[in-house]
Amino acid sequence: MAPIRLSNQERQRLRTKCREKLSEHINSRLGIKIDPANVRLNPVRNEPYAWKILPEQEERLLKIFSKNLSEHSVGVYKELIEGVGVSFEAVSSYQPLSTGLNSVIPLQGDVSFTGKITQLEQENAKIYEELRQSRNTAGQEMEYRRLAESDLTQMEAEHGKVKDRMQHCEITAEFYKNLTLRMLLGLNHVLPILEELKNSAQMDT
Questions:
Q1: What's the Cα-to-Cα distance from 164 to each of 22, 152, 171, 178, rounded to whole Å?
Q2: Measured distance CA(144)–CA(91) in Å, rounded
Q3: How many CB atoms lie within 10 A of CB 43?
Q4: What is the spatial distance between Cα 103 and Cα 57, in angstroms, rounded to a whole number?
Q5: Are 43 and 49 a contacting pair, CB within 8 Å?
Q6: How far apart are CA 113 and CA 30, in angstroms?
Q7: How many CB atoms lie within 10 A of CB 106?
Q8: CA distance readout (Å), 5 to 1, 11, 107
Q9: In percent, how much of the chain has pLDDT > 70?
């Protein structure tokens, strides 16, 4: 019979520790002092607190929270001691809840489930906005680059046209230069003849 008595003593010890742990959590989270002996897993309507559970823990923990603390085993007491503030947390029963045991996301440190949800929503919104701005900036940069490349292509085309016109002008200038030179050479040849004819005409008169 001794092992049975020891088992009952261990169960009683852990149940007391579990009540104290839950009471401390309610006090630290909500500022509400509840005597450990009066802590309930399924609080009645006039209790100032309720419990919120993680989605992935809900199926298993709802079975635990549907019973009285005194009805559970040593293993459940250990699980509640380790899971308070991690798998579930105390919330005020005066705030609107869709169910008696709402599902929430995990805690980190002293941040509540609800506070963590708000924090993550704000972070997600910030990341989304930064991503949207980055996409807009990238799109603007691509448009600027496209316009710059288009302007460069047009400038290169205009440069080609100017170069062609300059070459044409150079060819034309060279043509008239050669023409002028030939005319000057012709005049140099004709002028002495004309001068000779002029002198001959004067002598005949």
A1: 91, 18, 11, 21
A2: 54
A3: 19
A4: 9
A5: yes
A6: 13
A7: 15
A8: 6, 10, 38
A9: 84
